[in-house]
Amino acid sequence: MSKIIQKIDLAEYDVIFCDSLEALDWAYDNGLKKSTIVKSSAPALLWSKEKKIHNIEHRWSIEETEEFQSTVQKLIENVFDMVMSITNERELALVISSATFDFQKVLYKAACLEEADFIEPRVCVYTDGTCGPAGNVMNSPWAKLLSINPLFSLVRYKLKNDNWKPSTLQEVPYWKRFKIAGYETIIYRLAVKLMKYTPEYMFNKRVLMPNENELNIETAAFLTLNGVKVSKVQPETLLRVDDIMLDSKTTEIIEKILPIIRKRVEQWVIPRAVEVTMSLFIDNIEKKIKQFQSLIIGWEKIIVKKDKIKQSVLMNSPGNVNGYSLSYVCRKEGIPLISSQHGITIEINKVINMLQVKFDNSVADVMLSYNSEIVDIEKKSYFDNSKHYIVGMPLRMIRMKSKQKINKSILPIVYISTNLYYMGFSLSQKTDYKNALDEQRLVVDVLSKLPHKVRYKTYPEDNRWYADVDPVLSDVNSADNIELFSDKVDMRYLLNESRIIVTACATSTLGWPIMSGHPVVFINQKYKSPLTNGAHASLSRGIFVFDDDEYDFHEKLRDFLSKTLDEIEDLWHKKKSARKEMIKQYFCSYSSGAGARASKVIVQEYL
Fold this sequence. Notes:
The chain is α/β, with parallel strands linked by helices. Helix content is 41%, strand content 14%. It has 21 helices and 18 strands. The strands form three sheets. A six-stranded parallel β-sheet has the order 1-6-5-2-3-4. The chain has a six-stranded parallel β-sheet with strand order 8-7-9-10-11-12, sandwiched between helices. A six-stranded parallel β-sheet has the order 15-14-13-16-17-18, with helices on both faces.
């Protein structure tokens, strides 16, 4: 087994695993030889292009990653079908299938290891620090994967540069929050507080809300106006995961799916890594099942069927172990689980289909959606379990559109960066380092050469994936015409501070700029969350789309953004008719009234 120690002679090692510049400097100060090979996936370390710093993900070419991604969906389907052939508990099948998907991140990392890593001396610096709600995600699973190497050691390093905080609304003025949140949010907040102390016998209809999103809040506000009691709920904590014992049936299920997993593991890792990778899979699956069973016990204390009151659950993002456990209890009690869409992504993203098992409609009985496009896609998904209703976008998004005349003194251009790092397997076919290089080139060859002032808005990440500051920001700070905005403030509160909005990647971020009414320039990245063919055609007619795989992409984008702002706005107005059709199909089927429409569905059909 690997040694987990603090005092270690680093001079003994010719190879070190490290993903932090600060930690590497500490290692050098504590005896690590300057000639030692550093294996890393961190953009900040690879940025120097020093020969001794090796990209541990070098094997992952675009073609390799594409094959890895394209075979995930069938794998998940096979696991789901195998579990369902043994048990009729759909939620358990979803837990195991979803955990199998999550395990692809570990498999991706295991595939980076070489024969020598398992038999020669190796040391890894485990970085400790503040990371956000997901816990410490700054470290790859090298310690677990290389535990079979008796010459492997792990040393922990506590970051000194530990300034990290999740996104917050504290820096957003109350008036700006209210302008977007609207009166529905106030009604919802007040009603929930008052109803908490109102006797239950005064109501014959009740909606339970474990969490929130924009549409859920608006829907709940209208439910309260229709005499429905809305209650916020959380599962009780009754049993620790470690105290849960798996029964024989669950053990049988795990044994049945192992051949499916082994076949995939053997395809991607070297022979010496197969058994330890399989062992990690079993550990992860068992932990997730125990978490599921623990949450079921917690939810059973909260979700109880009552004869004199009709109940439904309204949840955001149920496609996770918490949602699966709640769904299990709701199904047993005959209580509908309703979910509402929480952003534009599935409609427009070409590669997100491999995430089908985590789609809301895989678990919810009812889906409340923004538009017809997402309904068509979700109905075709392998795990669809919902009845679908199109209700439109919440007013929070529709309010993005400013009714004031254009203020020509505001910032000319804002670039909303979606350059997020995930330390491995994600929806991108490029590694974090390659994505960082792409972002750098966009800054250097396009944004920094514009005749306009540009705001570079970083994404307000909650979780810290790498310990060091994104190296791309050094080029941002070096540009005379670019203003770095790195405060953890959601872009929705800043949209009306710029005349032209530029962004990339087919993610939920795009929905907010589109609804603002400001000219939107979208960079379609072929290997990182690209648009579907249909969305590409529609968005190309309604907004300005530039494809990054065109040989003169940077020149075309730079030339376009170098036009006068009045010229760009004039070209934007000419797309008005096409944009209206685009919004109706891919963004919002109705101009308003989503909360009232959703409330009506819930009251009439499920209460």
